[in-house]
């Protein structure tokens, strides 16, 4: 498998509980390298653009409010098969269905407050990285 980059967010529920380091330790233990990272606070509008694909879903408004409720940490993770590996480390979207040892099993509070986001494919990874990072911020 090739070296890939994927986009990751440590969400407000996790930053507010001081879990950034614990979550990063899980990524690094899985062989994912954090090649870019910054702590920012989104407006509801910025969150809405990021999650536009979910615009028609009943949880969209709640999701955008939540993502704008406190700082988040946006990241680029790099490694072999990074997109799939990150999704494996995160666990299922709903923490009740997440496997033992995954981030969401250990830390997520609910399907909405689920601690992390990760890109679901190569095209979305590229788009999501480009939404938050400039080329100058990606130094490898
Ligand atoms: P994420 O991987 O960031 O992608 C979309 C997000 O929508 C998802 O994680 C959840 O946080 C959120 N989400 C998905 N389903 C629901 C739901 N039924 N209720 C509230 N939020 C949801």
Automatic annotation (TrEMBL):
It catalyses: a ribonucleoside 5'-diphosphate + ATP = a ribonucleoside 5'-triphosphate + ADP; a 2'-deoxyribonucleoside 5'-diphosphate + ATP = a 2'-deoxyribonucleoside 5'-triphosphate + ADP. Gene3D superfamilies: Nucleoside diphosphate kinase-like domain. The keyword ATP-binding applies. It comes from the Bacteria. Its main location: cytoplasm. Pfam families: NDK. It is an enzyme of class 2 (transferase). GO terms for molecular function: kinase activity. It is found in: Cytoplasm. Homotetramer. Belongs to the NDK family. Major role in the synthesis of nucleoside triphosphates other than ATP. The ATP gamma phosphate is transferred to the NDP beta phosphate via a ping-pong mechanism, using a phosphorylated active-site intermediate. This is Nucleoside diphosphate kinase. It comes from Rhodovulum iodosum. The gene is ndk.
């Amino acid at each position: 498998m090739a070296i890939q980059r994927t986009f990751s967010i440590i969400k407000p529920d996790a930053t507010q509980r001081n879990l950034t380091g614990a979550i990063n330790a899980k990524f690094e233990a899985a062989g994912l390298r954090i090649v870019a990272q910054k702590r920012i606070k989104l407006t509801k509008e910025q969150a809405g653009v990021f999650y536009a694909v979910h615009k028609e879903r009943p949880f969209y408004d709640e999701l955008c409010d939540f993502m704008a409720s406190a700082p988040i940490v946006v990241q680029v993770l790099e490694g072999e098969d990074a997109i799939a590996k990150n999704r494996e480390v995160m666990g299922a979207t709903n923490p009740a269905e997440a496997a033992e040892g995954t981030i969401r099993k250990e830390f997520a509070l609910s399907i909405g407050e689920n601690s992390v986001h990760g890109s679901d494919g190569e095209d979305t990874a590229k788009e999501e990285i480009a939404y938050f990072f400039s080329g100058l911020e990606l130094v490898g």
